Amino acid sequence: MIKVGLVGATGYAGQQLLWILNMHKETEIKFISSNSYEGKEISEVYGNYKKYFDKKLISQEEAGTKLDEIDVLFMALPHGMSEKLAGQALKSGVKVIDLGADFRLDDSETYEKWYKVKHENPEINKQAVYGLPELYREKIKESSIVAAPGCYPTSAILAAAPLLKKNLVKTENIIVDSKSGVSGAGRGLKTESLFTEVNENFKAYNLFMHRHTPEIEQEMGKAAGKEAGVIFTPHLLPINRGILSTLYLDMTEEITEEEIYKIYEEFYKDDYFVRISRELPEIKNIKNTNICEIGIRADIKKKKIIVVSVIDNLIKGAGGQAVQAMNIMFGLPETEGLDYLSMYV
Amino acid sequence: MIKVGLVGATGYAGQQLLWILNMHKETEIKFISSNSYEGKEISEVYGNYKKYFDKKLISQEEAGTKLDEIDVLFMALPHGMSEKLAGQALKSGVKVIDLGADFRLDDSETYEKWYKVKHENPEINKQAVYGLPELYREKIKESSIVAAPGCYPTSAILAAAPLLKKNLVKTENIIVDSKSGVSGAGRGLKTESLFTEVNENFKAYNLFMHRHTPEIEQEMGKAAGKEAGVIFTPHLLPINRGILSTLYLDMTEEITEEEIYKIYEEFYKDDYFVRISRELPEIKNIKNTNICEIGIRADIKKKKIIVVSVIDNLIKGAGGQAVQAMNIMFGLPETEGLDYLSMYV
Amino acid sequence: MIKVGLVGATGYAGQQLLWILNMHKETEIKFISSNSYEGKEISEVYGNYKKYFDKKLISQEEAGTKLDEIDVLFMALPHGMSEKLAGQALKSGVKVIDLGADFRLDDSETYEKWYKVKHENPEINKQAVYGLPELYREKIKESSIVAAPGCYPTSAILAAAPLLKKNLVKTENIIVDSKSGVSGAGRGLKTESLFTEVNENFKAYNLFMHRHTPEIEQEMGKAAGKEAGVIFTPHLLPINRGILSTLYLDMTEEITEEEIYKIYEEFYKDDYFVRISRELPEIKNIKNTNICEIGIRADIKKKKIIVVSVIDNLIKGAGGQAVQAMNIMFGLPETEGLDYLSMYV
Amino acid sequence: MIKVGLVGATGYAGQQLLWILNMHKETEIKFISSNSYEGKEISEVYGNYKKYFDKKLISQEEAGTKLDEIDVLFMALPHGMSEKLAGQALKSGVKVIDLGADFRLDDSETYEKWYKVKHENPEINKQAVYGLPELYREKIKESSIVAAPGCYPTSAILAAAPLLKKNLVKTENIIVDSKSGVSGAGRGLKTESLFTEVNENFKAYNLFMHRHTPEIEQEMGKAAGKEAGVIFTPHLLPINRGILSTLYLDMTEEITEEEIYKIYEEFYKDDYFVRISRELPEIKNIKNTNICEIGIRADIKKKKIIVVSVIDNLIKGAGGQAVQAMNIMFGLPETEGLDYLSMYV
Predict the structure, then answer these.
(1) What is the ipTM for the molecules in this complex?
(2) Which of C18, C160, D187, D319 suits a disulfide with D16, CB 3.0-4.6 Å?
């Protein structure tokens, strides 16, 4: 049994992660923390657990004193809050999987510029592996600290990687038009997250300045082997969970839709959680799962490729991907605890 | 032109009232207030007004200094906040229409018991007329202060009044099973009002203890001419607006569904905003309107009558009903500014 | 491994059942049928299965020729369609679990009256056990044919059974005010099931005449040991899945809320899938699960008890309950294949 | 009073149009037709009208015999169905406003290619004016037949026109990423329009091949004075009404966001129904209105301009725009019958 601790268990991502860990056959949850609900039982905060699973929420501080009880520490905190405890954990020989943004950007300066927070200990960041198993499985296997990718970046990077790797598309001005369910905004209290504000509404936000932009650019650039520029436009969907990203890519050479499909199928042939589909993907087919589904349309005359991808932002975009990384790090089957389909309705 | 002031313009009820007053041909809006957004333009708080209507939000205090500019003061405040300003207004000869709960209960003690607030000046409460035009049109005409009914009570009282007036149903344990859209909870920040908490969810709340209970009992009792006991069970619907109430009533004598329909049609024959329907009513047919639609089913063998009513909680249950009262108080056609149908979709 | 066949796999209940059987560790799916989609792969009809599970849909007729391949036949058909094939299966020594209404009513005449269909072979109906494990676990164990309860009846019967068994409430005019998500209406094409008709809407339907009424009356009567009369009022909720039922019961003697809670906790103490809760239950806490959650409020002065229950109509109200019955019939742990919690959001 | 007839009154667009005409002070509705519901009263088909407005639905054929009773004929029919009756009407001196696609494309061959229907009488098409008042007000004034623009094209063309007119953006590969509410799919019965299929879902559809593509290209081309190529990607939003379009445009020269805003404000300075906004537009601020709201973001370094526009697809995208055209054709104030704001919630 892998002994795990979880700090930040009461945000939507943290709760989802807890749900998965509770289902997982090879983990034992040693502690869960929450600064907002310290001292309460988790079932008082999330009624789905009542009678079935319970544990008292401790403070993050107390979590820091219990690192010797665990093999791996999951962190689902707002950005700028993970570094110190991550450092402690690493020192104690505990593996770290961080669901926040603190260790996703290779370059500490870029991080500082976009997140307005400094890496106190840039060494930790240097150790961190970007936890997208489909691209970094081998590195994750050997890492002691993994930065689970952001939800939007997961949907965007998986959608573009095969084309970028083969240099089949231009890397300037890649357009990522994304639409996310509301759970992506977290459980914090904001007028714009109220039911009556979101329901029957739709909007774009943070154009040219969403913090996931440098993360997408970094990974698209690495895939292509050269700098990539991304226009990232997030929108807010009136649904609970799910992200759909529509990518607009410019061909560098003529290529048919069928040829592109072949490349994707080959590229992801060993990736259980990526589903390449001839039909355009829909959120309802993957919600509540760790699956990323991808569909492609191409127009040779216009030299345009449109790739559409869907994920569940709380699972493949957060808690599920983190557990997938854990499975890899601990030599378990990658699908352990993650092998369920969408119920469709 | 009727000169109006509005305190509490930025809650959902206040905003709806403002919308109606802005459309109304015979009103001139002299000031609007908001304690939360004092100093902002209303269009900064509600983007629907941008470019079309604007006015700076003043404080409630400042509103008190401008009573000489208006003929009628609308108040859409949390309970316990209306009495002082209402008193001032009345003294200045300004008519008052209060959308809150402060003057709905005849008995100040009952008010105090349920709302945990005292009437400092019970005289004001005594002057107040319960502003349900279908039952109190004549009194409203002559009143200087009107307490606009609560949203749930409006749906319940209109549904039962004809049967109560004729003593065709028992007055003990009248069951009112109501379901309301989320705007009824207001625009305040509460975890349980977040989109992700309400969407795809449904729940009952405040059983046996919702504050609208004494209001419903008071008015049902008055209609019946004897004390009435109500079991009121509110539920939260994942929609923006609308209330549907299902009432279970016990016949005192045998009566057919058709006879009951006749009674309702007769009772409401002069009420433009009450629609008696042989089909069961649906929220989509009345949302965004001042209409209350009522359908009836009866089972003589079981001696049960079920009455189903629907209203838009923000209009017939708040701003629309308040303007309907104003129209009556100022001798205007009752439908002025209120004469639009639901767009259905 | 239990070899199973499923006829009616492409309705929402059938699909949910298939989902569960696919996750179940002890079953092997031998065939699935669909009259509407015969010849297609299930993944062409429900995209959630793509790449992960597939099987060609055969006709119901062909299913009849494959009974020798299976141990148990699940049937999820419109009413009036199960009898013939069920008879064949029983003759071949195949156990039958029917999710439809054909064998739920003990009295063939009552069935005929409400469903306008005749039992051609009333013997089958006589053999059938009402498949509510919490009340009939022992009988299910020994049965060869089980009628899985209707969704509304499941929510109503579990909510009232403990009080009825102890004769603590009157059995005349038990009010069951239920609200169901749209999947309960099935996947058939009807204008009133369109998104634009249901969304932002709410309505009651089939008052005094919904076909689940005699089923609820039968089981409430059996629990009480005397005839029971039920007023059943269904409503349509704009959500995908979930039923909340609000029951109004009249005390036969004075009893406190706390005493009632004790009775319920004792009554269901061995029932893994019933959760008694001091908080009022919410659909989001049980959706996508086989759990029925129940909350209670009582008012001694009014001699009224309100019981609120929630289930997922497609799981505890259909596919999950059917598999729970199968587990019992085949001596498996009752929770096999059903042991997951709601993801909350 | 303008005497109007309406064929196709029971689709969502037709119903919306009827709603507006019923509110309009200068119109008298002489007949309404529906092939699906011939012989019924409109209030039997759309319950919002009950008691307030009614008229029997006649057949389209019968409508053809009543052209002498009207001044203007509105047609809201599926494509390929308007030509014959339009021709009759024009011959009788009746003005025609067609909400369908039959007369939107200048080039009959393009129409035939995309819609697989032939113009029997191409002369009618030649007479038709594209009914976008903001671009063709003067032409509409003098026209006898107007083709009301498609919903998606309205949102796209208004968003891009000012930049195209000034040749500030490239005209190849203009990306229009649009998201529409479900009412755009009409009231026809399709599995994919069921509540349970759309709710909590999101998808893209008809990539590179949606029929609104040539219409957008035609009008963008005309605005720019040269051929325009458009990548149009529609998506289906789980809301009743509203379209948001996100346009990606390539600068031909460096220009700041502020300069672009100035151009838009100038361009639309006399257009009551276009609102240029410094905040990004949201559907909730314009739903149930005839307003198109537009927001702009630009990045000089990337040489990209993103324009976001929102409309109500049934009003500015259908019935409202048609009435706006009628107002212009008949010399009425353009805002007559259309002057209401969104209720926000």
Answers:
(1) 0.97
(2) D319
